[in-house]
Amino acid sequence: MTDKPKPSAQAKFEAQEKWRFEKLSAKLEKLEGKIDYATLKIRGRTEDTKGPSHAIAPHMVWLHEPYFVRAKAKVKVPGIPDIRCFFLQSCLRSLKDVPGDVAECGVREGKSSFFLLEADEAERDYYLFDSFEGFSDPVAGKDSLKSAIDPNTGARIFDGDFDKVAQSFKGHSNVHLIKGWIPDRFDDVADKTFAFVHVDVDLYQPTLDSFAYFYPRLAPNGILVCDDYGSAHYPGARLAMDEYFADKPETPIELPQGQAFIVKRG
Q1: Do 197 and 120 share a structural domain?
Q2: Which residues constitute the domain of residue 86?
Q3: I want to staple 182 with a disulfide (CB 3.0 to 4.6 A). Which of 122, 206, 233, 251 is the partner?
Q4: What's the pTM?
């Protein structure tokens, strides 16, 4: 029986360097996770106390998709979290062969709309509905809010500026900004078919009204997304979606970032 050959000094050195590199890489990955978690905590976007959220860790591919990066660089207005915007982009890109336009119920300053426009691979019209006067009145027993009025300012919560938002969409000839309480202006699009519908109005009644109007006009294989389905702050959104789809063939699919969606059966 012959002795195994001893590793050369070079082989020992390379093995040691590989071990050091792997150990350093593990430390860096752990540090990245801690930084990501600290960022989320500062922004108030997580209640996770057990560890970092890896959904926004730097190695996640979605953060580097060109259409997301372009939108992120251009859009400087407040709105839903970036991870929710990316989900909307991903949905829309899956619909490039599904005919129909885009509807958004709840616009605020247009963040999600701009992200969608940047990602769309089809030629569509966008119909964006909002009162631009803030929340409508909550429904007792359905919504957690007692009033739509901010006690500190006397204005409605999420009060908006129609002219400012309209100016920001200047140059987008396919965007139609429609001002009015939901559902008062929905009949402006009575003859349209939609491939994608995004409902972000937080409260029970306008959420229910949005589903009731747009689901029948959603194309087969089209997607409808409810933004606040998973938010305990706005239980009316979840209640409205569960009620509306209770007798429909689709069942809402809930996502960890707070959204839920359905894909309309053909």
Answers
A1: yes
A2: 76-263
A3: 206
A4: 0.79
